[in-house]
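Service request form, structural biology core

Requester: graduate student, group of Dr. S.
Request type: structure prediction, single chain
Budget code: on file
Notes: please return the result as structure tokens.

Sequence provided:
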Amino acid sequence: MDIVMKQYDAYTEYIVEQAKKLLSINSPSGYGREVMEYLMSELGRIGVKAERTRKGGILAEIPGQKENDALLLEAHCDTLGAMVHEIKSNGRLKMTNIGGMQPNNAEAENVTVVTKEGKTYEGTCQLANASVHVNGEYASTKRTWDTIEVVLDENVKSKEDTEALGIMAGDYVCFDPRTRVTETGYIKSRFLDDKLSAAILLGYAKYVMDSKEMPLRKVYMHFTIFEEVGHGGSSPCPADVTEAWSVDMGCVGEGLSCTEHEVSICAKDSGGPYSYDVVCRMIALAKKHNLGYAVDIYPHYCSDVEATLQAGNDVRHGLIGPGVYASHGYERSHKDGVKNTFELIKAYLGEE
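Core staff response, request fulfilled:
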């Protein structure tokens, strides 16, 4: 059967290309220098004023027509990952997870170990004693951070051999994202949460700069680097911000109505309900513009903007994002979800 190719607008394609570039840069929580350097370069290229925060993120600014009524959009560029916990006697690496990385789906992934001197080494995350023809308990062994390990692609046989490479406790272990975009518009990768929405913010910034149409409100874009460990959005929140959103992933799964094709509007997550007025206006605009959308409650979720509120900021808050399936695993979204999220942001900032 021939595949019917759907045409997408230039901004959707730009967003997907930017997502691919962001996904290709390793950035587990706290290790954000390279991804932020790329973002600063791209924001500068499209003409957006931006500065680095002390925590290592980026705060960008787009002027608006109204004063003292700014909207803060937050997207995180940190990902799940791991760190070297210890070097084992056989030269292999025991890990500790960063964020919600699950040992059950980390197994058999290719990884890169980054040393504090900037050297990189390839390896594979495997179950200890991973050969099925040798290990009679392979199937019954519970996968935990104590039973999986990094097997380095180096000729190491002892702790001393691995130490000689410059590897030590606290070195980052970065997992291969395996990014792929299909002909049918699906986007598959680890860490779409949240580099896909970071790319959506780049897309909106490019749209504003291309069109030279100033949004009704000033827009700040905060690209954070500690969301997966809970404090990415705690600061900064400029004084003229009255409303803040996380632009993150929308949940897809049993009991929820969103698919990868919609923009998900979150009414409540584990941190409690989002601003009722903000949610209602999002829904009204999605209906007005015939956008594919879903309203859902996320049972096991906490966002950057909740850290913004917990830091004491007096703002209304919201959470949207393209639907993403298999969160914190090998994730999948779709260009439709990207476009609907982008269009909802445009509508919200383009009309009263």
